[in-house]
Amino acid sequence: MSARLPNVLFLLVDCMRADALARGAATPALDGVVARGVHFTQAIAATSSTTPCVAAMLTGLYSPRHGIRAIGGHRLHPEVATLPELLRAAGYHTMAAVTGPLLPESGLDRGFVEYDVRPASVYLSDGWGRALIDRIGAGGLPEPWLLFLHVWELHTPRKVLPAQRGRRHGRNRYDRALASLDATLAPLLAAVGDDVVVVLHGDHGERLIEGALAYRWYRLRRDLLGRARTDKREGHETDVYEELIRVPLVIAAPGRLPGGARVDQLVRQVDVMPTLLDLLEQPVPAALDGTSLVPAAFAGAELELEAFIEACGRVHGTPRDRRHGWRTPRWKYVAAPHAAGVPEELYDLAADPRERRNLAASEPARVAALRARVAAVEAAATAPDALSAAEQQVVEQRLRDLGYLE
Question: How far is CA 15 from CA 110, 116, 158, 236, in A?
Answer without folding.
Answer: 24, 20, 10, 8
